[in-house]
Amino acid sequence: MSGYAPSEAARRSGFSLDTLRYYEKIGLLADVERTAGGQRVFTDDDLGWLELFRCLRDTGMPIAQMRRYAQLAREGEHTVDERRELLEQHAARVEEQMLLLSRQYEHLREKIRFYERLPGPVPETGQPTATRPDPAVSR
Amino acid sequence: MSGYAPSEAARRSGFSLDTLRYYEKIGLLADVERTAGGQRVFTDDDLGWLELFRCLRDTGMPIAQMRRYAQLAREGEHTVDERRELLEQHAARVEEQMLLLSRQYEHLREKIRFYERLPGPVPETGQPTATRPDPAVSR
DNA sequence: CTCCAACCTGGAGCGCGCTCCAGGTCAAGC
DNA sequence: GCTTGACCTGGAGCGCGCTCCAGGTTGGAG
């Protein structure tokens, strides 16, 4: 139920072996267990952390902040407020990010719609088209 | 109505002067006009391109692809199909990106909700909590 | 016991997208 | 005409997040 070889941990977490080692080196993962011979053994708890890191990474949190979070968590219960705060601020940034992304996605779609309205290799007509063909469309 | 000094173009586009020069250097912006003395003069058309680049950049398109797009556009009307294709494929990637982002945002929210349910500095109870406190939550 | 694939370490290198710098030129205001 | 701040160029440097490498060790299968 617990105790995964590095390759297995990589497979399950979706991070590369190198990344797992890197995360440990910079102090994201701390106290990863070892065999007598020094090979890493990842626990379910480690995998839980990795899942969290993936979430934070996918949402664009810089590593320095993840480190801070992990550090706080290791310091104990008295840091829960700060941890929640950190996550909430991050969530707020993610919301902005999603908003921007969907706005820009709409622009992109608009631009594509323009291309679809082109019937074929007909010279672009209408619109105060500039000398260079392309933009002027999305405005 | 047309003809902006570099600083003005930077202000309007939101890109830094260095970035504008960089974009020209690598061939994103081509044929930027110059004064007799060699200083750049940006047109409305240039600003249109910059707006497009911002859209593509904000949605995560790598510069190499933007370059390709700009190149195609410069080649003329016979590349419209390829350009549309390029944008459509990009839009598809953006959709995936938005999906991933909102999924991970939900995880984040879930995690925050966990913190909010903590009444105070009470030891975490319930759940098969691991030795290390923090993750195990978001699973 | 032997083999070999998986693992270890410290440190160098990389790809991206800028950003900064030195040393020189331009041009608008006085 | 002079000053001064905006601009020019080529090229080096940077911050991030890995990724790769050399050279050595471990440990399970046969």
What is the number of strand segments of chain A?
2
Range of helix content of chain A:
55-70%
Give the mean pLDDT of chain A. 89
Q: Largest interface, counted with CB-CB under 8 A? A: A-B, 55 and 55 residues
Please render the helix and strand layout as text.
Two copies of one chain form a homodimer.
Chain A: H1 6-13, H2 17-25, E1 33-34, E2 40-41, H3 44-58, H4 63-75, H5 80-117
Antiparallel strand pairs in A: 1-2
Helix pairs in contact in A: 4-5
Chain A binds a DNA duplex (30 and 30 nucleotides) through residues 5-7, 16-19, 21-22, 35-40, 57, 62-63.
Summarize the structure in words:
Two copies of one chain form a homodimer. Chain A is mainly alpha-helical and 139 residues long. Chain A is 60% helix and 3% strand. The first copy, chain A, is built from five helices and two strands; from the N terminus they run ααββααα. Chain A has helices spanning 6-13, 17-25, 44-58, 63-75, 80-117, and strands spanning 33-34, 40-41. In chain A, strands 1-2 form a two-stranded antiparallel ribbon. In chain A, α4 (63-75) packs antiparallel against α5. The first copy, chain A, is elongated, with a radius of gyration of 24 Å. The interface between A and B is large, with 55 and 55 residues. Chain A binds a DNA duplex (30 and 30 nucleotides) through residues 5-7, 16-19, 21-22, 35-40, 57, 62-63.
